[in-house]
Specification:
Number of domains: 2
Largest sheet: 3 strands, mixed
Helix content: 40-55%
Distance between the termini: 82 Å
Order of helices and strands: HHHHHEEHEHH
CATH class of the largest domain: Alpha Beta
Structural class: mainly alpha
Strand order of the largest sheet: 1-2-3
Length: 166
């Protein structure tokens, strides 16, 4: 085998696959749907997945599954209450709502957060600084996180706002 026909044995950096391309490859959306959503994204600045869901082109669970694969972050279903641990006890539900995360696991050296944006390094850093534990991330849907915060930590943001007036 000559040098020019030998297989390449060195890993070459791969270009990350964009979410829209992943959804097209999985036959979850059509090219026209993606093009329309990208135009809206230019106008509004929202995330592509949210726009596709808002337009009814795809279910949120399919967007989350693709994002999980794209980011190599596990997808977490919020079926269990958050762990009770002194390291995270003081995390404010208001902060969790604002940053769109909820703790889902704690061990001796780390806390795992289900987040709508597992690349939100400011929130990850803030939680690390607060609890002193290494922060691992998982992906979950925004409404699922907000519902879990309401369920396990009490009042919703709207109820708290109304309470300020009474």
């Amino acid at each position: 085998m000559s040098a020019s026909t030998a297989p390449l044995l060195v890993d070459q950096p791969r270009r990350p696959v964009r979410l829209g391309e992943m959804l097209l490859e999985r036959h979850l959306i059509e090219r026209e749907d993606l093009d329309r959503a990208l135009e809206i994204q230019k106008e509004r600045g929202d995330k592509l997945g949210k726009i596709l869901v808002d337009l009814g082109f795809i279910a949120m669970r399919d967007v989350l599954a693709a994002l999980s694969d794209q980011l190599s972050v596990p997808l977490h279903a919020l079926e269990e209450p958050p762990p009770a641990a002194p390291e995270i006890e003081g995390l404010s539900p208001r902060f969790m709502r604002q940053c769109r995360f909820i703790p889902v696991a704690v061990d001796d050296s780390s806390v795992t957060l289900a987040m709508t944006d597992p690349l939100d390094f400011e929130t990850i850093s803030a939680v690390h600084s607060f609890c002193g534990l290494r922060v691992k991330t998982a992906l979950a849907g925004e409404q699922e996180i907000l519902d879990a915060i309401d369920k396990y930590y009490g009042e919703s943001e709207k109820t708290q706002a109304l309470g300020a007036y009474f």
